[in-house]
Amino acid sequence: MTALHEKVPATVLTGYLGSGKTTLLNKILTENHGKRIAVIVNEFGEVGIDHQLISSSDEEIIEMNNGCICCKVRGDLIRIVDDIFAKQTSLDHVLIETTGLADPGPIIQSFLIDDRVCERLELDSIVTLVDAKHLKFHLDSPEAEEQIAFADVVVINKTDIVESDELEATERIVRRINKFARIYRAQRADINIDKIMRIRSFDIKNILGVDPGILEATEHEHDTSVVSFAISKCGVVDGTRFNRWIFDLGQQYGQNLFRIKGVLNIDNAPRRFVFHGVHMTFDGGPGKKWGKDEIRTNDLVVIGRDLDKGQIQSGLDSCFSE
Amino acid sequence: MQTKFEHYATTSMLGAPDSPPRCNAKLLFHHEWEARAFGMALALSRDGFFEWEDFRQALIASIAEWEKEHGVDRVNPEWDYYERWLLALERVLKAEALITTEEIQAALAKEP
Q1: Which CATH class is domain A205-317?
Q2: Which CATH class is domain A8-195?
Q3: Which region holds residue A158: left if phi is over 0, alpha if psi is between -120 and 50, else beta?
Q4: Lowest-confidence region among A238-242, A254-258, A266-270, A307-311
Q5: What does the pLDDT look like over A170-192, one tens digit per residue?
Q6: Do A269 and B48 touch (CB under 8 A)?
Q7: Domain positions in chain A
Q8: Does the beta carbon of B63 lie under 8 angstroms from any beta carbon of chain A?
Q9: Cα of B47 to nearest chain A Cα, Å
Q10: How many CB pairs under 8 A join A and B?
Q11: Interface with B, mutate which of A1, A264, A292 (most B CBs under 10 A)
């Protein structure tokens, strides 16, 4: 009986060109942390130069030389995951580095919908490295913005080369794109790996209510089309109506719906209903039991491009039972 | 998405080796007590008395115990999926201190 073997957690590491991903990978591969980590490196271009820079160690580096990750990574990722598990069965963690030009969406979706990937790996979190000094120039590229929008954790790197006001300006940009990510600051990508691994952002059991502080945060004026917002409302959500609405939402926004997660009081069931989604893919199920006298609040967090908050709000409103 | 606990729990087992027996895609019960044991496990987990994952682990362990002795032999007349189910349920209920061995024995003694 092998139906319920432990899955290996996987972190997807993104970040624009030059943000310090290779430095961080080197650190993870050489540091004495006692964990067996497989690293999947994706290269952009014909020659994988970065592969030469990563120091060798007992850990295995598998290089994907297919070029742009957004086009065809899914098939490759599946094959590479097969290879890794054929050679090494006792892994503590898998780290997938995407190229600086990649849209993280397809890779995340592979975790949610491909049986061979989700049988072995469970998506732990999306970690995005940001260059403290150059982020403002990278934002001309939609990928740089999307990498931040998708993130569970943003590491603002190279803080030693900026003044404090510049650093704060960078942090404000990150916050404006993604209100919900945890933000850490680092120099030379020196960050404790416990802050970026095993944080279980995609574990539906781990999706908790929205931090009330986030809801109170004032709305920023946007000079970007990426928005993130939270909706919080008491009451009972009708399961059938909600299901129909959420899949319609996925159909409507598709690629522009980056991340959505929520904790809902569906049909007044004893347990919370927790779910998350990327683009048109959703995953959800029963979570923790509600407390005896607990006020049952429905929380929804949405991140995406060109989303109409008012329309999403009224769409969710229409899912409530009388 | 499965928004009902019962749907989520049963579909989570589909295709897995601990999945309940089915006939024409419908759950197959040979005796009334089997359906009761099935429903009781689902209802208690739905209401938060234990995690479904913990029950599945107990079920897998109880099936593995049988297989260790008899091999994977589903045509053996002694094989009974719901006996394994019931054993797993009893263990989980005891582990969660919801029922004691004495209470189970006392209830069994009352049966004709």
Answers
A1: alpha beta
A2: alpha beta
A3: left
A4: A254-258
A5: 999 999 899 889 999 999 999 99
A6: no
A7: 8-195, 205-317
A8: yes
A9: 5
A10: 55
A11: A1
